[in-house]
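Support reply, case 0932

Customer input (verbatim):
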Amino acid sequence: MEYRLTIVVPVYNEQENLARVEKVFNTYFTIAKAPSKVLFVNDGSSDKSLEMITSICDQNAHFEYISFSKNCGLSAAIKAGFDYTDTELVGYIDSDLQTAPEDFNILLEHIDTYDLVTGVRTNRKDSFVKNMSSTIANKIRRSFTHDGMDDTGCPLKIIKTEFAQRIPMFRGLHRFLPAMILLQNGKVTQIPVQHFPRVAGSPKFGVWNRLLGPLVDCFAYLWMKKKYINYTVDSSSRG
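Our regenerated output:
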């Protein structure tokens, strides 16, 4: 089967959610507006996540995986997923499924016009503290990047792979994906998507990660923006 979209699913100690991930995606594949597959990135899980991932991939042709030897963090998992993608488009969703795979169909409607399409979580089903810290972090980040995005933390995105694979690696990368596409002179947009409460497992980020982390990462982004190299090859002797 010739796929058009690879959906990266980072996994760190999510054994309680993986059976649901398998079920939900097998349903999504039947309605997907682009031929799609899942690429699990096991981020050094210490529970039974890797065992479950390998079983899912053995039993389902539309699932693949790579696995880190140790925990490297969400940004590394996303970047590795981008690097191992071999399709025209690459998507991203969290394994807790607080966003819905079927909403990829909504994002796909816009990807021919834009180079990144990100979801904006509507009617968020998180705690007051989590929502407030996320709102503050987004305002801080937006004041530095001027990317016009209201919810870069939304774990539902589609990017043209040629743009995604040119994004340099740094910690906190997942908060700056639209800004990194803009640095490449790409076009970005945001689309409202559904949001659901976490039903299993435990969150991997706390208030500290959502507030101090983005502030520190903003300075890293400003340094990178100043040093960023952007070029376009006009012609080549290669075929």
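We compared this against your earlier run and they match. Two observations from our side: The chain has one domain: 5-227. The two ends are 27 Å apart (CA to CA). Please reopen the case if you see a mismatch on your end.
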